[in-house]
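During the second year of the project, the team shifted from modelling isolated chains to modelling whole assemblies. The rationale, set out in the original proposal, was that interfaces cannot be judged from single-chain predictions alone. As a representative example for this report, we include one of the complexes processed in the last quarter. Its constituent sequences, exactly as entered into the pipeline, are reproduced here:
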Amino acid sequence: MIGVDGMDPGFVERHWVDLPRLANMRSRGSFSRLATTMPPQSPTAWSTFITGLDPAEHGIFDFVHRDPGTMQPFLSMSETEDARFRLPLGPWELPLSRSHVVLLRKGKAFWQTLEEHGIPATIVHMPVNYPPVESGEGLAGMGTPDLQGTQGTFSYYTDDPGDPPRAVSGGVISHAEVVGGRAVLRLDGPPNSLRKDRRTSSVELIVDVDPQQPVARVTVGDSVAVVREGEWSGWLTADFPLLPHLISVRGMARVFVKQLHPRFEVYVSPVNVDPASPDLPISTPHSYSREIARQTGRFYTLGIPEDTSAMRQGVFDLPEFLSQSRLALDDERKLLEYSLDHFRDGLLFFYFSSVDQNSHMLWGQHDAELLNIYRAIDAAIGEVLRRKPTAEVMVMSDHGFASFDRSVDLNRWLYDQQLLALKKGSQEIDWARTRMYAMGLNGLYLNLAGRERQGIVQPGSESQALIQRVTSELLALRDPANGRAPIETLVATHVSGPNARIAPDLIVGYGPGYRASWESGVGAIAARTFEDNTDAWIADHCINPADVPGVLFTTRKIQPTNPSLKDLPVSLLALFGIAPEPGMTGRSIYPQGSSQ
Amino acid sequence: MTWTLIPVSAIYGLAATLVFRRFTNRASIRRTVNRMMAHAMELRLFLDSPVLVLRAQRDLLRENIRLLRLMLLPCAVLALIFVVLFPQLDAMYGYAPLRPGDRSVVTVRDSDDAVLEVPAGIEIETPAVHAVHDHQISWRVRALGETSGELRVRETGRVVTRHIVAGNGLIYGMRLPFSKSTIEIRYPRRTILGTNWMVWFFVTSCAAAIGYRR
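Output from the structure prediction step:
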């Protein structure tokens, strides 16, 4: 099974000639649109694919959830639980028990069921699987952090006085000074969990610049690379000290030398967990990533390796982003080769992130470049079909794509409707006077008494009336710039049980061309309800799921129904003659009696 | 070729046995060990007498120190041999030759102007980086295929060479302890069955030494 995040059926249909292996699968087997989840966000959709459950049951509604106790957003996929007991020693704080990373997705993964029935499963880069469930063998995918614990923080160093040092979304821009041909840069690693102040540990990254030629020598730890302007280094490893000379954490990064003369501009990728010596649980069994690294060399371990943030912040231009994206895709191809070499029987799942991440930056404006990515995936699929001619192969995606032209800030709209209040002279939400708020890319929440810390909306008739009012008013909302309806659908979730605390009360299905603003994504408020999207992030899928279905290709004919994501785990189990798990509501896409 | 570590370690084990025979007073060691065992037995026998237990612990500690003193000379001789051997062994077993397609960095020290010449099968990929800060020059090279030959660095008034290996085999080249070569070639680190060569070296040499004793 090949999972291609964000592969769009419309794009594929426009380019059959350029995608001969997919065209071949369509003609010999089947091709159809694949209904996605509400909301059609990757963490939500992949969780449904993994468990066969609806979001209300697996508990992943968005990239971002909020804690109703603190009203602070947090990443929905996993959390780190610190050591319970610590021994304070001056500035140090030594843990007496282990800290843990916990996967927040609920429900049983379909390959756990396969393994229980004796069917081996290899699961490579499955999203929302960090830390990976201990079943079969596999690598964690989307949700795997960098060494700083973020979803990717690049470092960019420049001596340009017009580019002041600052933290930006997804990265840090620092001032560099080249003295005597050498720049000594500070590369940040993880927060030091052994110190009370959690001070960030760091290493020196030294760049020696040739006085004449556009070439430099980069040294970090015991890694050295010679890199020309416009080139990428290989993986450079470094040990970030936690307790000097005793305990360190190993990470790795790639360096891109943008410019050496006359300006100094050097980009360093987020510090990835080193698969050859992982300090975080990125694979199961733990030795799996080490074994792959030993045989294939190091590879990106960050959940989303394509650095869209660097392009959004203007650090990368388009060719630079494409070159970085190509490196990530090359790593994926390398891992696919390894997986195919070692696959004997059972299930192999392999995930590609490139189409999704490139679609966000290229969709509708750089079709030729995006087609190149699709072509590379098509070639990889061809390789799978060639290497495993007797295997049943499925290619699927979690959602498609649409352009993102206008942003909608629902917190500003709620403010205008006097449903959300701000503290006087501040942009901070006044929770004591707020009845509803937006958080994440599709979620609307009641400020519910008994659930939210300062909830004021009473459960029952008051909350129902408010949901109905907001639903009807948002469906009637029009964009003043063009008269279009920015919102096509709203779904009240009515979640009960353990996920009721984190579930949004309403999920918003935007129309094509619209998406939530970046501000409301993290619970903040923008200046206007509607704004043109001027960001380099020009396409999205967090809209009405009917507008962004995924794809499903199979080498075997399937039943002529309208398949959906939650049908796939049921179908996979059915292929091996295994009944669906309780709670799985999907249907098999294969005709009855077609199991192997 | 890493199998050659087995005879090398066995020879070191034999050398260790000979050094111990030559440089230790075996009668004193035997006497000290016997005393240690006697004091250990005291600890078990007189558990109900705290004064005797404390005295036995003191004596045990004293005999331990005596044993360490008796072992000091042979250990120092062995350490000296190992210090001389280590750079050679680490180069041979701790690093792997470049694989075809691999990139590496060649650095020449104490130089501000030099020209690099490479043997067939090695390609220079970048102009020289003159690291004026520490008087070094570096190049990026790539192995095009299996090869073994001399890198040559030409400077005003001198030519320095260093052997480079790509493909299979071991990396040779006599190196003095605590010295750095004028030309440094960055080879990838290597493990033997996933373990550092030193672990295999010590396990094998200890096994060999025990074997010789018997």
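Residues 318-342 of chain A form the longest helix (25 residues). The mean pLDDT of chain A is 96.
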